[in-house]
Structure formats: structure tokens, C-alpha cells
Amino acid sequence: MLSIPIAAATLLGTQPVGGLAQDAEHWYKVHPGMARISQVNQDTYQIVDEFGRTRFFHGTNVVMKQPPWHRPLEWVPGVSSFGEQDVQNLHDLGLNVVRLGHSWTGGEPVRGQYNQTFLDILMKQTKMAEDHGLYVLVDVHQDCLSRQFCGHGVPDWFVKGNWVSSDEMYPFPLNPTPFPVDNSGFPSPQSLCDTVNWALGYTSVAVGNAFGRLYNNYDGLSDAFAAYWKKLASEYVEMANVVGYNLLNEPWVGDTWADPTLLVPGVADHKVLEGLWNHAAQQIRTVDNDTLIWFEGATLDILSGFNNVPLGDGSKSVQSYHYYSPPQLGSISTTLNNRRKDSERLRTAGVLTELTFWMGDEKQMQGLADAMSATDASMVSWIGWAYENLYNGTSGLPYTELAKHYSRAYPAAVAGTPKSFSFSESSATFQLHFTSDPNIDAPTEIILPPSTFPNGYSVQVSPDSSLLQYVLDKRTLALFTSTSIKNATDIYIIVSPK
């Protein structure tokens, strides 16, 4: 909890102060649209925008794991969509980023031939997000790699049925007898997939073999993966709201049946993953020099084992990581502390791109509340799993029991170096401490979801008159550092409900 000298604070209402309105309106007029995100401050290990502000993100995942590999644009009761109503919902809930799945299966159904219709739909959804103030993390998603393995991710042409012997096909050894398959190599009937735990599918001979072939560039498969990323980057290079390229969701460590050492924490990161990330990053950089490249290590690792970030540039990369229990055995605070060590060693930023966001019992709800407090305390951005879990599919309305945890106040942009921030769910009180940077004329922006502050809010600032207030929209409070602040100054803010 912050300690603020209230006696020196200024109580601000929710309207522009003095003559600031004209100046603030002018600043936003001169700087229309969303600020570009293309840099990591390697001293603070935080993402910064084009104005030098430290940026924080709260968001959710939007991924379609079956044909047509994208969410429909129109909302229909019982069908999870991603269209105008959805992005407006996310905006109103105070979220500012979406990790949007760009299935390789949907994008390249025939090898060497990209499905432009599919790509155009994802582009349209990205633009809709931009129109509602949401950033997009372009994500190539996979779970158990392919439909041949009861999963999804790579195109159907990727996996060949003769890669392993007939008696070792999926899901051997989880089942002593492999599943029968149809003419496409998919388990038949499909219901067989429900008889095995999908997460344990990674330990099967067939899945390990396929990942090994990707990492070893068998038949040019890693070349094809890198080429798909070049295609995506060429599509998104001009989009202002793209916060980065997430190379591959939850990559498995590789062919552990051929090389059991890959199961040792950290080994796969530098032995097989690092090469693929560099390969894809090299292709991305042929068409896009600026967008941040987000990379993941093995999900089960305690600490990363990377020798370096993609292409060795921590200022242009972000470590993407997840927290679930299992496979993580400790608390979320332990994971956040360990990933901070990764950031310091690799001199880059880290973002929690998946954690549990769905309804559950009291223990689960408390776990989400604890996760929100822990990420605030560590000043870590997060993207929860997943959008369709946030609302009632019949009514289309958010679950209030969930929203009270994730729909919360936070600093989206800080004009200086953030020192700490927190939000109390019980009192709906937000606190921020940062050191101002007099070289930044862009405002600090605080997201204050209307549902959290239904009757408005009051703002206390110390030192007195150090910040000037401007209400940008119904969820965003902009605070411009006063021109009287000539040097780096510690500034404290409290926002409380009326």
C-alpha cells in the first residue's frame, strides 16, 4: 500500500482543470489514434511506447481452435464471437489488449498457398479492436500441434502418417493401442480424443516426433513456419495497435523419446527453441523492423534456459509466459519473481499471457483475486484465458463474479518510471507511485472502468498541482505532468469512488 502525504494532496474532480482542457485536447488532436508500441526499456524491463511512457496491459485471449479457425464477426446467443459488440464489451470492462489467435492451419491450408480471406477477417477484427482502443498481440496458437494428434495449430499437410511406426502412432504410450484414423489421418471417431488428457498428449511418441521435425527443419518445416510469420508481419506492419508477434503458444520441448535431456528444465529453450525463434524472427525482420517479437519457452520450466532473446535484441522482444497450477507448482508470486529474473538476465520484458479466467468455486475465485493483486505488486501485464469464459453465452452479459476481479483500475501509460501501483477490490481504491520524466509531454493514462466507479471518482495527487487532469473518455483519466515540474519528481496518486 502506498503512503501518500494527503495534507499536500490536491483533490480533483472528474472534469478538466482550469485551462488544461484546450491544451489536452490539442495534444490528443496532434497525436490521434493509438500510441505505437515498439520498444522495451532494458533498464526497467518494461514495455514503453513511442512517447517513452511505460505501458501496462490487461486483456484476454481470443482463439478459435476449430474450423473456420476464427471467431464469427456477429454475436449470436450461444456462439462465441469477436465483432463490434465484443470489442465494445472489452473496452467497457477496462481491458486494453487481445491476444488474437492466427491459426497457421487457417492461414496456409495448402502448403505455399495463403488463405487471404482468412487473413483479411483477422485483419478486420484487429482494426475493430483498434477502433475501440484495444491493442492486439498477433498469436500463432497450438495445442498438441495438429488435428492428427487431437489438437490444432499446424496445417493438416504438416504431419505425415509414416513418421512413426504404426504401433507408436498417437496416443501411444498413453494408450497401448493407437487410435484408428480416417483417410486424413485424424482419429476416428473424433470422440476418441475425449478418452485421453490432451495435455498428456505431449508425452506421446508421435507428438514429440512431430515437434522434433519442426525444430530440425525436416522437409523445410521450420522454413515454412518462418515464412508464415513473414506473411503475417507483412500484413500487420502498418497497424498501430499491434503490440507484438507471439511466435508460438506453449511450444513443447521436442522429441523427448529421441533426446530425454530435453525434459530437463531449461535445456530445450537453448537446444531447440532458440533456433526456431531466430529463424522466424529473421524472416519477420525482412518486412518489419519495429514490432516487438514475443517468444515463449517451455511451459513447464521454472526459469528460462535461453542463451539470448530472438536475434539478441532485448529492446525488441518480450518473454511471453503462462501460469497454471499445474504445471506450475508454486504460487503465482513465485512464478512472477522467477520470470523477473529471466527479464533481468536477458534484459527484456516479460508478460503473463495466460492465466485462469473462468468461473469456479470460492477457492478459484480467491485464486484469481490473488493473481490480480500479485501482478499489480510485480507491475506485470496480463492476458487471461479466455474471452468466451468471461460472459454468459446466452445473455452475452459478463459474469459479475469474474468482472469484479479483472475489471479493475490500472495505469495503461505512465509518463515516467512506475514505482508501484495497486487496486483494492474491497474499497475500489487505486494507488500509483511513479517518478516523472520531464522529457515526456504525453500524459499518464489510468483506466477506470465505469462499472467499478458507477458514481464517478475523486483523485488525490501529491505533490500539490504536479498533475493536471483531463477526462479522455468514459474509462480513461489522463494526467499531464505540470510544466512546473522541471526535474524527475516522485508523484503519488489515489483514485477513490465517490
Automatic annotation (TrEMBL):
GO terms for molecular function: hydrolase activity, hydrolyzing O-glycosyl compounds. Keywords: Glycosidase, Hydrolase. GO terms for biological process: carbohydrate derivative catabolic process; lipid catabolic process; polysaccharide catabolic process. Belongs to the glycosyl hydrolase 5 (cellulase A) family. It comes from the Eukaryota. Residues 408-484 form the Glycoside hydrolase family 5 C-terminal domain. This is Cellulase. InterPro entries: GH, GH5_C, Glyco_hydro_5, Glyco_hydro_b, Glycosphingolipid_Hydrolases. The keyword Hydrolase applies. The keyword Hydrolase applies. Residues 84-387 form the Glycoside hydrolase family domain.
